Amino acid sequence: MPVTLLGAAEIRELAADLGVTPTKKLGQNFVVDANTVRKIVHVAGVTSADRVVEVGPGLGSLTLAILEAGAAVTAVEIDHRLAERLPATAAAHGVVDGALTVVDADALRVTELPGAPNVLVANLPYNISVPVLLHFMETFPFLQRGVVMVQAEVGERLAAPPGSKVYGAPSVKAAWYGSWRLAGTVSRQVFWPVPNVDSVLVGFRRDPEARGDEALRRATFQVVDAAFQQRRKMLRQALAPLLGGSSASATVVLEAAGVDPTTRGEQLTIDDFVAIARASG
To answer: What is the CATH topology of the domain spanning 214-280?
Structure first.
């Protein structure tokens, strides 16, 4: 029996039955359009060979679209009512036993994922999208690619190149793990409730080789944070507290890393930040 998707009316009925009112606190905006969830799955290139992790499945509209493509799904849901109901919804829509695993937990605190999924597909809560992405990329090296729906402003930052107005700490930290791209726009009208911000799809692919070990990652992210906390200052000034306490000491480290001390953080690539972290060690 093929997997069937949720319609807008059924989504509202499910929510009413569970006593669920979408909340801003949890960043809940449920997708009520079948074409949109199928588009996300298509852009992510999900096949029956994949195991997908979904963060914040909610009532299950995107979950069912992923399962329709034949992939197995591990769904991480913080709302106990939604987590408890999802397996029954899946079964009622033709999902076979064993295809769906629900983890009732806060995505920011999850440290194990059943089945070692290789793909992340999610409509991420707007208020925690970047922390969730960075946590999952750091914690689960078996995640190789994915597509997430996020607030447009966040998506543009994640995919921004050096020199862009919106390039910042999230852009650099995401680039530590791999390449990121804008992969499509999503109408506000496909959500319930309708949000007051635009949404985009962001795709990523993990680099085949790790950029460095955990100690180097932490050191690099420290440099990134310091550079963008005072993004209008030259690096020799912005990084002085971190690199010896003075502009002169910071200049020595920056020159050793092959970075112009008079440039600003927004001009540097992830490789530049890694070089500074190495030189500072």
So the answer is: Helicase, Ruva Protein; domain 3 (1.10.8)
**Separate counts of helices (H) and strands (E) for the chain:** 11, 9
Prediction pTM value: 0.94
Q: How would you classify the pairing of strands 119-123 and 51-55?
A: parallel
CATH superfamily, domain at 8-206: Vaccinia Virus protein VP39 (3.40.50.150)
Residues 6+ apart with CB under 8 A from 80: 104
HSE-up (13 A, CA, CB side) for residue 262: 0
Q: Which residues of 233-266 are buried (b: 16+ CB within 10 A; e: fewer)?
A: ebbbbbbbebbeeebebbbbbbeebebebeebbb
Torsion-angle region of 168 (φ positive above 0: left; ψ -120 to 50: alpha; else: beta)? beta
* pLDDT tens, residue by residue, 9-44: 999 999 999 998 876 665 668 899 999 999 999 999
